[in-house]
Structure formats: structure tokens, C-alpha cells
Amino acid sequence: MMECAKCKREIVLSGKVSRQSICPYCGAYLHSCLNCRFYAPGRHNDCNEPQAEPVSDKRGANFCEYFEVRGTTGSGSKSGGSKNNARERFEKLFGA
After folding, report:
1. Fewer CB in a 10 Å sphere around the end CB: N or C, the chain?
2. 40-59, pLDDT tens digit by residue?
3. pTM for the complete prediction?
4. Which residues contact 45 (CB under 8 A, 6 or more apart)?
């Protein structure tokens, strides 16, 4: 699953995100910097991947070979999840 960077809705993936993939809800490109886990505004080229080529249009589809889907927040909401949800995941992971 992934969350669209534009409309923030969760999208169920059925394979890799191709360059032509678009959000079924808002039509935004999914293979874009904004949907990549390496996207980091303020960093050099706005990217945490040091070998990635610069991309001028961060919203548009690109050919970056380092693209990896940025995951969802796990809550399905725009707020980034609740503290209780984070605590539950922590306890499940570490058995606390």
C-alpha cells in the first residue's frame, strides 16, 4: 500500500509502480519524487539518495532508478497516525 502525495488517499498496489502509473483518485503521477521514500526537501537535490540524478519536476513522472515507494502512515488519515496506533505497533514489534 502507498499514500498518494497529492490527495493523501491510500492506494493498493498490484506490483511495481511504473513511470506511467497514476493515482486512481486524483490522477497525479505515482512514480514521482513526492512519492519516493528518498524525497527530502532541503537536502541536495531534495533527495537522500546521493547517487540519484537531479530531477527538476518533483511532482512529475520520472525515470529515477532509485525510486522506492514511500509507505503509508499506517492510519489511513492525513494527520500521520495517532500515538495509540504507534504504541500498539511498538508493543507488537517488541512484545512490550
Report:
1. C
2. 999 999 999 999 999 999 99
3. 0.71
4. 52, 54, 55
